[in-house]
Amino acid sequence: MHNSSGTLADIDPVSAGFDIDRDGFVSYKNSLLFLPPKERGSFRLLLNAWPKVVSKEAFSKNVWAGRMSDESLARCITQLRRGLSNLGVVQIESLYGQGYRLTILSDKVRRLPAIPVTPQSSKSEVAKPHAALIEACIHARQLLERRSLDAFSQAESILKNVVAKAPEYMVAKLLLAQYVAERAFFDGNIQRSQIDDALGELRSVQEAEPYLQGLQSQRGYLLDCQWHFDEAKVAHEQALQMSPDDDVAYYRYGFHLLTSNAPSEAVVALRSAVQLNPFSPNMAVGLVRGYACAGMDPAEVLVHARSTYSSHPDSPSAYVNLLYTLAWVDPQPEVAHAARHFVQKNRYAHALSSRAVAYVLARCGDHAGALEIIEKHSSIHGIHLAALVAMDMLDEAMEKVQAAADTGFGVLPFSISVPECEALKQHPDYPLVHAKVFSRVPRK
C-alpha cells in the first residue's frame, strides 16, 4: 500500500489503520476484516491503488482472471461496501466510464472512539486463525445464506470444526450462533437449550470483541427466537446505531418488527435492507412478506413477488415465494402443478419449502397432497399452520399453535402474524395463546 504523510483531507490507508498480511487478508486496526475472496481481492486492489482509480479492466485481470462481467463487479462492490459499512471510515466511489476509487474519510478516522486495548486484542497476531479456517468460515456463511437443510448441516459441521481448532476466533462463534437462530426460525429443528447456549457464547464474544459487526444483531435474532421481544428490540437498535449501513441488521430488525406486531415499521426496515443489498434474494423475499403482513393490496404484493423472482431467477426462495403469493391471491391448479414440479426437481431446496408447498397445494385444492407433506415434515413449532387454515382445519391448527406456544421458542409469533392465518384469531382459544406468545412485546 502506498504510504504518505498525508493531510487531514488526504490520509492514506496505512495511516488510517489498514494492513494487508502475507496471506492477503486485510485488517483494520489489528482486527481482521471478514470478506469473501472476490470482495477481499477487490479491496486489496483498491487499497494498493489508493488514491488512484481502479479500472474495470484491472479488476477483471487481477480478481477475476479475465472472466468478469459488469454485473459481477457491481455485485461485488455492493457486497464490499456492505462489509466495510460498520467501519465508517471508507467510501468506494463509482466513476462512470472509469472504474472505482477508494476514499479514506479522514475526519471519521480522527473522530473514531478509541477501542480499549485488551489482552486478546494485544495478541491479535497470535490469536489469528490459519487462513484455511478463515476461508472455511466464509464458506459456512455462504451455506447459511442458502437456507436449505443440507446447507445448514454442512455449515454446522464446518463451524464446529473451526471453533474446536481456533476457540479464540470469535467470528466462527458468531456464525455458529447464526446457525442456531436460522434453524429455530426456518425449520424449528432445534432445542431451546441450544438457543441458551448460543446466547452464552455471544456473551463471551462480547467480552473478547465488543465491536464485532453483527454481534448485537445476532443477539437480537436469538432473543426474538425466545420471544424476548423487549430485550431483542434493544439489541437490534444497538446494532443499527453501531452499523447504520448494515443490511443484515436492518433485515433482522424488520423481522423482529413483523413478529412483534409492528408490520408498517417492519416494511421500512426491510426496504432499507433491500436498498443496501439489492443482490440478496432473501432480503427481497422478506420485503414481499413484509408488504403482505402490513396489509398491502394482495394484487400489489403479487407484483412485488413477480419482480423479486424476475430479479433473482435462480433463487429457490424467490420462486417458492412467487408460487406462495400466487396461491394466496389467485389459487389455480397450475400453481399447484408448478409446486409439485419444484419439489420433484429440487426436493426441498430451501428450509421454508415444505410449509410453502403445503400451503400452495392446500390453497389450490389438493388437500391430500398438502396433508401428506404436513405429516412427512411435521414439527412441534406449527410450521404448517397456513396450510391447515387454508383447508378450514382451524381446530387442528389451534392444537398445533397451543403445542408450539408451550415450547416458548421458535417461529410461531411470525406464523400467526401472517395474513394467511388471520382466521385463527377468531378461534376462542386464540386470546390465551396470544397472551403467552406476545407477553414480552414492548409497549408503544
Automatic annotation (TrEMBL):
Residues 6-104 bind DNA. SUPFAM superfamilies: C-terminal effector domain of the bipartite response regulators, TPR-like. Pfam families: Trans_reg_C (PF00486). Keywords: DNA-binding. Transmembrane segments: none annotated. InterPro entries: OmpR/PhoB-type_DNA-bd (IPR001867), Sig_transdc_resp-reg_C-effctor (IPR016032), TPR-like_helical_dom_sf (IPR011990), WH-like_DNA-bd_sf (IPR036388). Coiled coil: none annotated. The keyword Translocase does not apply. Residues 6-104 form the OmpR/PhoB-type domain. The keyword DNA-binding applies. This is Transcriptional regulatory, C terminal family protein. It comes from Collimonas pratensis. The lineage of its organism: Bacteria, Pseudomonadati, Pseudomonadota, Betaproteobacteria, Burkholderiales.
